[in-house]
C-alpha cells in the first residue's frame, strides 16, 4: 500500500512513499518540525520537502482571537462591576439624604428659623428673638385678632400670658410616662412628660395634597380624618387671597429621632438648644399624623417666627380653630409648653373639640391636660 505526498511548495510530481515513513515526533505535535528526511523502502531519499520551520515564539491565530475576547470580557466585567458599585453608592447617598430630609423635615437651607449666625450661639440669639431685645417684633396684631374673634362670639378672651420662665422650661422630667390615650385619639396628650410608643403609626394616612393645599415637597401625609376640614380651611384662605403652604406633616418615631439628632448637631451638640425647638422621639405631635407646619410665599416658604406677621399667619391665628386646628405653642407660654413660640405649628383636634377649647380661653397644652385628667 502506498501514499501519495505532494510537495505544495514546488508543485513537483507526486512521489510514491511506502508505509514505512517515520512517524511524527512529539516535537512535531508541539509545533516544532521534525527535520528527519523521509525514506523509501529501498532507503532512497525522495524529493525533499522544503518546509520552513516555525518559530517558537509565534502565536496561532486562534489563540490570538481567544486572548482578544478574554481582554474584552475582562473589560466588560470591570465596567459592569464599576457601574454596580456606583449604583450602590448612589442609592446609599440617596437613602441617607432621605433620612436627613426626614419625610418633611426642615430646614431647606441655613436661613430657616431666620438663622444667620453660627449654630453654637444661644438659640434665642439665633432666631433673633432675644426676650430682652428692645427690637423684638410686635405680635400684638395677632392677639388683637384672636381677642376680636372671641369677643365676636361672646366668649371670654384668655388671661394674659405669664412672663417667660427663667428656668429651663425646655427640659424633660426624670420620669417619662406613657400617653394616657391611644395615638388615634384626637385629644391624646403628647408632651415632654407623656410619650407615644415607638411603634405607634397611624393606619389611615393620605397625601396632604388631597386637600388641595400646596406643599413644599412631595411625600407628605396626614390622617384621612383631617382632610375634609383641611380642604375647607384651604378654600377659606383662598377666598381671602392668601397663600398657604405645608412644610411638614406626619413624622414617624424613627424620622423624629433623626430630626432631633439633626437639630442637636446643627446647634453644635447643644441638647438645650435642640430641646427648645425640637421634640425627642415619641414626644412629637407630628407622630400623631394630625399636626401641620405652615408657611407662605410671603416669606418664600421659610420657617420662622416671622410667619406670625404674615397675612397667612395672622389669619390662621384667628380662624384655624373654626376648622378644627389649634395653635400648639403660643408666645409667652414656653414654661407650660416646653417649646419656643411656633406660630406655624397647628394641631388638628376636630371642629367640636376646637370649639370647646377655644371657648375655654386656655392654651391647648393646659386644656388637653384637663381633658386627660393630669
How would you characterize the overall build of this protein?
The chain is of the alpha+beta class. The protein has a domain at about 110-370: Muramoyl-pentapeptide Carboxypeptidase, domain 2, CATH 3.30.1380. It has eleven helices and eleven strands. The strands form four sheets. Strands 6-8-9-11-10 form a five-stranded mixed beta sheet. The longest helix has about 40 residues, at about 60-100. The chain starts with a strand and ends with a helix. About 30% of the residues are buried. Mean pLDDT is about 75; it is low at about 5-20, about 25-35 and about 100-165.
Beta-strand residue percentage: 5-15%
- Amount of helix: 25-40%
* Order of neighbouring strands in the sheet with most strands: 6-8-9-11-10
Give the overall average pLDDT. Answer: 75
Order of helices and strands: EEHHHHEEEEEHEHHEHEHEHH
Overall geometric form: elongated
Main sheet, how many strands, which sense, barrel? Answer: 5 strands, mixed
**Low-pLDDT sequence parts:** 6-22, 24-36, 98-166
CATH class of the domain at 112-371: Alpha Beta
Number of strands: 11
Distance between the termini: 119 Å
Structural class: alpha+beta
- From the 3D coordinates, which CATH architecture of the domain at 112-371 would you assign? 2-Layer Sandwich
Provide a count of the helices.
Answer: 11
CATH fold annotation of the domain at 112-371: Muramoyl-pentapeptide Carboxypeptidase, domain 2
Estimated radius of gyration: 41 Å
